[in-house]
Amino acid sequence: MDTIELVEESFAKLPDGKKFAELFYQRISEHSPHLMPLFANTSMTKMADKLLAALTAMVAALHDPEKLQNMLGPLGQRHLSYGVLESHYSIVGQTLLQTFEEELGEEWTDDYAAAWSEVYSNAAQIMQEGAAKAKAQNQSTTETVKKPIKTGALAWLYSLPVPKLLILWLALSVVVLEIAAIYGVPNWTRLLSACSLVLLIMTMLRGNNDAEKAGILECWKTIDSSHGVKTSRARQIAMERLNEKKCAMNRLDLAEVCLIKISLDGSDLSDSNLSGADLTESSLAGANFTKARLDKALLVSVYAPQVDMSFVTLAKANLSSSNLEKGSFLFCNMKGANLSGANLQGANLTGVLMDKNTYLSGADLRGAIIDDSMLDQAYTIGMIRPDGSVVTEV
Ligand code: HEM
């Protein structure tokens, strides 16, 4: 009998698939309680159903490597966003085999164990490759995001009120007159035309300025009208435009909204309510979230170096695999937050609140400022400490 036949045969022998899947999660919770925070947003019954369906589909696809690849690659990608790390796969694999043994009793043979071990390793590898690909893609897109912010003289001219524009026009006219005097071309016709040209440019700029203001107003109207709407592409674009125009968006109520992959580098969202919002894979470099509510928010694989999250509620938020390098998290509530695999190098975590459900497995805290007693309260196995050492046991 080959590997696939052995897997098919043993899988078919399970007396009750649902009971098997439930037992599997029970064993995970007993033997690997540190994995449980990852399942905080779901019920074990739902997870058991999903696992059984996934195993059934996987066993059915074993004869078709392409189908298996198409199924498991994206699944691995999704697992990255759940905060699953490479090291978790072997733990889950072992528990899977133990559960089989427990369920099939004497019918479970060494051949079955070897076949399942091979199939699971292969599946885990495809999932990890899918996750690695997604991580690489996300890094390259977020790192090349450029801020199309208007800077320099044009932005300054846009912002000038009418009286100041007039003074500028007069000053420019004087300069033109002076030049004409120095170079000895007191040609009034030319001078007049030069001045009118300046006036024309001013008027055009003034017009643009008004259009700009009208555009900003439209953006705010879009944001206001999407209040209570979970997913609104128009709101996302409006927020990005406002940010490009350097408009502060503090005190916004964006609870539970979907803002996946939004680009808000350098934005001001202080005091906003983003409780339960989905900001997965967003670009938030240098953004200001001070005193905002981000509890239960999804901030998975977010690119946010130098983000300011001081005095923010991040309780039960998912920040796994995010780049939070040199971020400021002063007195931030991180109870129950998932920071699995997050880059917190050089971050300031002074006064943060953590508890046993704060998950820091795989997080990199090299050079971070944090009170050791706070880290003692969190789950830190596999975390890189501020001094560069890796936590191997609690
Ligand atoms: C071959 C291995 C695995 C398979 C076939 C598998 C299958 C699944 C499936 C089908 C889902 C449902 C959601 C979706 O389709 O995206 C899921 C969710 C999940 N899995 Fe896995 N999984 C595997 C490995 C792991 C490992 C190693 C972990 C680590 C602890 C893990 C943790 C999770 C978590 C946290 C969720 C999300 C729960 C939620 O809905 O919040 N899985 N898995």
List the helices and strands and how they pair.
Blueprint: H1 3-12, H2 17-31, H3 44-60, H4 65-81, H5 86-104, H6 110-143, H7 152-158, H8 162-182, H9 188-225, H10 233-244, H11 372-377
Helix pairs in contact: 1-6, 2-3, 2-5, 4-6, 5-6, 8-9, 9-10
The protein binds protoporphyrin IX containing FE (HEM).
The site of protoporphyrin IX containing FE has 22 residues, from helix 3, helix 4, helix 5 and helix 6.
Tell me, what's the shape? elongated
Q: So, the CATH homologous superfamily of the largest domain? A: E3 ubiquitin-protein ligase SopA
CATH architecture name of the largest domain? 3 Solenoid
Structural class: mainly alpha
CATH class of the largest domain: Mainly Beta
Low-confidence stretches: 141-150
Count of all domains: 3
Number of helical stretches of at least 4 residues: 11
Total beta strand runs: 0
Family: Belongs to the globin family.
GO molecular function: FAD binding; heme binding; metal ion binding; nitric oxide dioxygenase NAD(P)H activity; oxygen binding; oxygen carrier activity
Keywords: Heme, Iron, Metal-binding, Oxygen transport, Transport
Domain Globin: 1-132
